[in-house]
């Protein structure tokens, strides 16, 4: 249907040309019609096809077509009546030029074409009436062309904004997964360098290899899923198993405590699991960085109800990551990880709170509605 609509401007041309032949308007008008059809019509159709295929129009040829229509007005001015064929082609060319002009020369040709189609009808008998009708058509064409120009620019701006948003999302994803895995690699390397036990060295090297391979797989998955416009991005996590895998891969199982409410498996939707997975990864990374891998860690995932401003209650999933004091980690970070996570959690209508527990440890709590709001 859209294709049919974009080519509807061709329908009046055979009707106007046939009408002028039947009514016997004179050879000057027929010559003007033939000249305009031969010079302008192929260019207009070619640019229409190019735009339909997503290509840029040939503005240079379009300018020459507009010049040909201006020349076609010369025999029309000597004829006894107005050429509807030339006027219609001029209207279509005006719309296209107003939409796509770039240089001053093209703008000048647009003005000349518009003014010419107003002046020439005014030279005929009852010229005031003809000039008024032609000016109405030309002004409407200019308005339509400029409107389409604004729509095109709006689409370009929206596309640029979408690209920038996607780049920011990719940067956030890369920060999350690389920081998590690289921090683990550094901690394991430090442990291996300080131990003479071959069993510890073997275990550390094995985990370093696993972390490196896991990071490479996730990076490749992220890039491949975002490099194609038609590819839908796969979520990082879609269920409880992702949380279990994160905790199992963190460190010594003796220092880890995982408590998952049995109701969350079915209650939590996939988009929320994605955010929970990233929050958990960032929280564990920060524990390694600040407290060290030997710090005791407790992870709990449960559902809870909370009151809303409108006196209603809503169901939430609550992720709590708490750690006790440790031997010390790698030092302070930039803080950008938590800021990025807060943006994600806020986008789903939730909240993220992090701070010391008063006993030398740290607590991070994330609360996200089970039915997150739809946001553009």
Automatic annotation (TrEMBL):
Top-level taxonomic group: Bacteria
Tagged with keyword Phosphoprotein: no
Keywords noted in UniProt: Kinase, Membrane, Transferase, Transmembrane, Transmembrane helix, Two-component regulatory system
Pfam families: HisKA_3
Residue ranges crossing the lipid bilayer per the database entry: 28-45, 57-78, 84-102, 107-124, 130-148
A GO-annotated cellular component: membrane
One function term, GO molecular function aspect: protein dimerization activity
Occurrences of domain Signal transduction histidine kinase subgroup 3 dimerisation and phosphoacceptor (ranges): 166-225
Name of the protein in question: Signal transduction histidine kinase
Signal peptide feature range: none
């Amino acid at each position: 249907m859209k294709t049919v609509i974009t080519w509807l401007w061709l329908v009046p041309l055979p009707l106007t040309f046939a009408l002028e032949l039947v009514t016997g308007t004179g050879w000057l008008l027929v010559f003007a019609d033939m000249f305009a059809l031969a010079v302008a019509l192929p260019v207009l159709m070619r640019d229409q096809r190019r735009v339909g295929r997503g290509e840029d129009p040939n503005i240079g040829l379009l300018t020459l077509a507009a010049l040909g229509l201006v020349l076609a007005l010369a025999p029309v001015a000597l004829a006894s009546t107005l050429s509807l064929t030339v006027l219609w082609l001029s209207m279509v060319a005006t719309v296209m030029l107003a939409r796509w002009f770039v240089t001053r020369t093209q703008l000048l040709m647009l003005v000349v074409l518009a003014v010419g189609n107003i002046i020439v009808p005014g030279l005929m008998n009852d010229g005031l009436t003809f000039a008024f009708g032609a000016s109405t058509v030309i002004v409407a064409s200019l308005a339509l062309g400029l409107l389409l120009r604004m729509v095109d620019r709006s689409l370009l701006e929206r596309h640029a904004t979408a690209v920038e948003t996607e780049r920011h999302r990719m940067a956030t994803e890369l920060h999350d997964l690389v920081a998590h895995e690289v921090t683990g690699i550094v901690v394991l390397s430090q442990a291996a360098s300080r131990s003479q036990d071959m069993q510890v060295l073997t275990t550390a090297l094995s985990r370093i290899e696993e972390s490196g391979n896991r990071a490479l797989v996730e990076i490749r998955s992220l890039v491949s899923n975002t490099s194609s416009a038609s590819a839908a991005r796969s979520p990082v996590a879609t269920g409880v198993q992702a949380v279990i895998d994160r905790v199992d891969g963190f460190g010594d199982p003796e220092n880890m405590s995982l408590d998952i409410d049995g109701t969350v498996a079915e209650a939590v939707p996939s988009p929320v699991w994605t955010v929970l997975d990233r929050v958990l990864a960032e929280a564990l990374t920060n524990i390694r960085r600040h407290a060290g891998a030997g710090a005791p860690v407790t992870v709990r995932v449960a559902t809870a109800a909370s009151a809303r401003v409108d006196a209603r209650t809503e169901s939430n999933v609550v992720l709590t990551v708490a750690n006790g004091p440790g031997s010390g980690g790698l030092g302070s970070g930039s803080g950008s990880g938590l800021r990025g996570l807060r943006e994600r959690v806020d986008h789903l209508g939730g909240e993220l709170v992090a701070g010391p527990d008063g006993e030398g440890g740290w607590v991070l709590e994330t609360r996200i509605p089970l039915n997150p709001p739809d946001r553009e």
